[in-house]
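User: Can you help me understand a structure? I only have the sequence.
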Amino acid sequence: PAANMEGGRLYIGCSYCLVGKEAAMACTVAVEDTIVTHYTDQIREIIEEGKEEEYKELLQIIKKFRDEELEHHDTGIEHGAELAPQYKLLSKVIKLGCQTAIKVAERV
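Assistant: Let's start by predicting it. Here is the structure, written out as tokens:
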């Protein structure tokens, strides 16, 4: 299933590249925003359960990945993501797709 999602992500990314740099950056920002939120939720859950020490190494990994995704998000903004045609609509649709993929992955 993960391979199918990765292939879909590649297809979507390539499709947006064809309609312009701003649309590709908008796609990047939406995806990264969703992933950053997901990682932050995972960090929060571990902390709220009081398992920071038990999952100390995992927390460091998740924080590192989250910070890298945040850099990608910021790069997308810096490169004109918000200038894409219908940016808000495009962002909502992409985020919904990403959130769905995360929910599916959590069940697999």
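Now, to help you interpret it: The radius of gyration is 15 Å. The mean pLDDT is 87. Let me know which part you'd like to focus on.
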